[in-house]
Amino acid sequence: MTPKHRVRLIDIAQATGLTVNSVSRALRNASNISPATRARVQKIADELGYIPNQQAQSLRNVRFQVIGVVYDNIINPYYSIVTGNIDALLSKRNYRPMVFFENNVESVLSLQTAKEIISFGISGVISFLTTTKQVAELLEANGIPLVILGRNGNDLGVDSVLSNDYRGGKLAGYHLFDNGGKNFAYLGARHDLPISQLRFQGFNKALTNNGAIIKHIVNNDKNESITVLLDRLFKEDNKIDSIFCFNDLMAFEVVNYLLLHDKKVPEDINVIGFDNLQREIHYPLRLTTIDNDKEITAKIAIDLIFEKLNNPSNKEITCKIIDVALVAGQTTTKH
Fold first, then answer.
1. What would the pLDDT profile of 158-212 be if each residue is shown by its tens digit?
2. Are 114 and 172 in a shared domain?
3. pTM over 0.85
4. Do 110 and 228 share a structural domain?
5. Residue 233 — φ and ψ, nearest 5°?
6. Tally of structural domains, the chain
7. In the chain, which residues have pLDDT < 70?
8. What SS3 class is residue 258?
9. What is the rounded CA–CA span in Å between residue 279 and residue 133?
10. Are 139 and 154 found together in one domain?
């Protein structure tokens, strides 16, 4: 889709033959505009793709330009840590982030949120969630560059930054095997989440390379609690000795569950997470995890956003993959 300027009141006025003031009053349902005229103006506004500018009403005194940041799990520290890095980098450019929280089953940047972002006059968007082609094209049509974190955006025609999830899974698999693991489990996110699939595939590859297999694959498709998932898992098999978790948040919950159920970590069960939250947050128990350099992720995302802001004609799509490394902690040890 060819980028165009954001639809303004003057564009609707030209299409309807009315004055800008009349169009404005019609869109605000003013009583001195006839219902027929209001309906005609609204219809043309919808056809042109007009989105009201809330920034003029609610952000008039904001000094800095704004980059929207979208995620869907306010509990996970990973998002706040990366957003903190984004804020530090944006402040050097006299910009600020504005967080938009999504709460939908699909875990996507929705059309509704995209329209809200456009209405606030936000300059660009960094999303931890994937989106649809429709939303990507809507943002592009309004001159708003989009960068997706943690997902490959090539099929959407947008820039993206993601960690080497497959390699991270392999590192976890080799480490658990080398630490004497015999009975392995993968605790993942939804089965259709690409990064969860990649982490599992890498994990599985490392184990099969060593002649081992994963007996238990737990995908959290129903957004159940860790307690429910593990109750079910250990009822099925109480001899599991190695668990690779989709992220650190899950891994800490797993460790807590195991300790409450009289299972020693790592003496009885080895646990590995992903994200290395302890690089920024110091917990009493040092988790073995996969580090995916959140500072680098934020920097590349900001560079991609400003490349498009400074060069709107640049149509090149970039996918940057961040290398990963295993960080050994206290939740794995040789049996």
1. 999 999 999 999 999 999 999 999 999 999 999 999 999 999 999 999 999 999 9
2. no
3. no
4. no
5. -65, -50
6. 3
7. 1-5, 53-64, 334-335
8. helix
9. 35
10. yes
Which of 71, 60, 69 has its CA nearest to residue 89? 69
| DSSP conformation class of 33 | S
CA distance 235 to 229: 10
Picking from 205, 202, 207, 167, the residue whose alpha carbon sits closest to that of residue 188 is 202
19 and 87 assigned to the same domain: no
| Residues contacting residue 314 through CB under 8 Å, at least 6 positions apart | 307, 308
Residue corresponding to tokens 């309004």: 142
Q: Locate all alpha helices (DSSP H) within the chain, ordered by sequence.
A: 9-16, 20-27, 35-48, 55-58, 77-91, 111-119, 133-141, 165-178, 194-209, 226-236, 248-260, 294-310
Is residue 329 one of the residues assigned to a domain? no
Q: Are 128 and 114 in contact (CB under 8 A)?
A: no
Beta carbons within 10 angstroms of residue 201's beta carbon: 14
CB 301 within 8 A of CB 117: no
Residues 102 and 178 in one domain: no
Shared-domain flag, residues 175 and 286: yes
Are 127 and 96 in contact by the 8 Å Cβ rule? The answer is no
